[in-house]
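Illustration 12: Thromboxane A2 receptor.
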Amino acid sequence: MDTVVTSAGPFIWQHSADLNISALYSNSSASSPQSPPNYGLSYFTMTFGALSNLTALAILAKSYTRFHRRAKTPFLLLAAALLLTDLTGHLVTGGFGLYLHLQKVQRQRAASRVTEPTQAFCKLFGACMVFFGLSPLLLGCAMAVERCLGITQSLQHSAVVTTAHIRLSVLLLFAVALTLAALPLLGVGSYKLQFPGTWCFLPVQGSLSTADVSLVLIFSSLGLVALTVSVFCNTTSGLTLLQARFSNQGLQPTTSRRHGQSSSLQSLDVEMMVQLAVVNVVSWVCWSPFLIYIIISVRHFYRGTTRQYEQPMFLLTLRMASWNQILDPWVYILLRRAVLCRLCGLVRPNRPILTQTSYCTGSERQNIHLR
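Figure caption equivalent — predicted structure in token form:
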């Protein structure tokens, strides 16, 4: 959903024009045989997303072996959890979406009646969509909070944010997402086949029960709160870094050691500011339409103004959210210090801004490494 509905999106969206929405909700509808659809873009998107996450995991593993002390920092643990969740969600939801679509196309070729998948399959698919959609948002929020504490409250950060606490926090966040995803499996709420019949999720349109409304609003609210907290923490961190950078510019180092420390701080500041800005933009652009649409749809339900044309719009917002897990690892891959060094060298060859070999050793920076 940083996730997630990731690979399901391409399969869902690519061939939506070939599917009859009336067959989705009618047991008596029939479909005529159709020509085989082109799966090229869908396969490419799923493969590209998986390779992106694997590449980011490889880079993260390399940093573990290169910086033994930093390998145990809280942020690296959170980053590893996020990338593993992205990769797993990408493959699981994408596999479910592909299976459901192939089953639908097979029925259409046989000119048989288009029926909905089994309720058990839809429940499992929907639970995966909720879990892998919410978990990356919560993990991204935890990463933003950890960075904010490390920058603004370095002393408290080193004492409070330990490896054990981070592992416990990750388990707690997973438990929250898993609980919400499992409630419909226990009879609280339900999962529903969504337009165009290739994915399952919490019902947001049509006749909604109190449990359905509660669950979908909890999902949307948790996601929006996580995004808002992330923006607030990242903005606070960015302002603190800018303030520190401007303060350092007013100081003239008198020794080579001071000059090295100033260069290291400046290098880390530039790296962090670029990555924080991109992470914020990607998360909000990909996820906010999907989460906000859920709230608007529930509002329309209470007003009795639900419209059929809103279903393709819901599909579009899902596709946008699905790309977050594909783009998220590339923020870590492309916006590393080594890459930024080359970019700055091309833009300003006579005045290097980033120093690839310099690393900050102060207590206020040692536990910070941006994805």
